[in-house]
Amino acid sequence: MKISARNQIGGTVSKITKGATTSHVSIDIGDGTIITASITNEAVADLQLRVGEPVKAIIKASDVMVAV
């Protein structure tokens, strides 16, 4: 699959926590860093996500905010 988004980070699914409609998918990107994505349970099933599977986190954001 080709995609235009440039912010792609490879990692491994380390945990999937399913809720009523949404799952939190934790992706270990190395050095103890975890990215968590909130996606629908349907998307988890469609993608056939499993712990230990290699995946890519694709980040698309129109704004980045910084606060102190």
Structure overview:
With 68 residues, the chain is mainly beta. It has a single domain (8-58), classed as OB fold (Dihydrolipoamide Acetyltransferase, E2P), CATH 2.40.50. It contains one helix and four strands; from the N terminus they run βββαβ. The longest helix is centred in the middle third of the chain and has 7 residues, at 41-47. The relative contact order is 0.31. The mean pLDDT is 93.
Relevant terms:
68 residues, mainly beta, OB fold (Dihydrolipoamide Acetyltransferase, E2P), 4-stranded antiparallel β-sheet, 1 helix, 49% strand, molybdenum, Transp-assoc_OB_typ1, Mop_domain
Strand and helix map with partners:
Blueprint: E1 8-18, E2 22-30, E3 33-40, H1 41-47, E4 54-58
Antiparallel strand pairs: 1-2, 1-4, 2-3
CATH superfamily: RNA polymerase II/Efflux pump adaptor protein, barrel-sandwich hybrid domain
Kindly state the number of beta strands.
4
Structural shape? globular
Span of the ends, CA to CA: 39 Å
Q: State the order of secondary-structure elements, H for helix, E for strand.
A: EEEHE
Structural class, judged by helices and strands?
mainly beta
CATH architecture classification name: Beta Barrel
Low-confidence parts: none
Radius of gyration: 13 Å
Largest sheet: 4 strands, antiparallel
**CATH topology name:** OB fold (Dihydrolipoamide Acetyltransferase, E2P)
Q: Total domains, how many?
A: 1
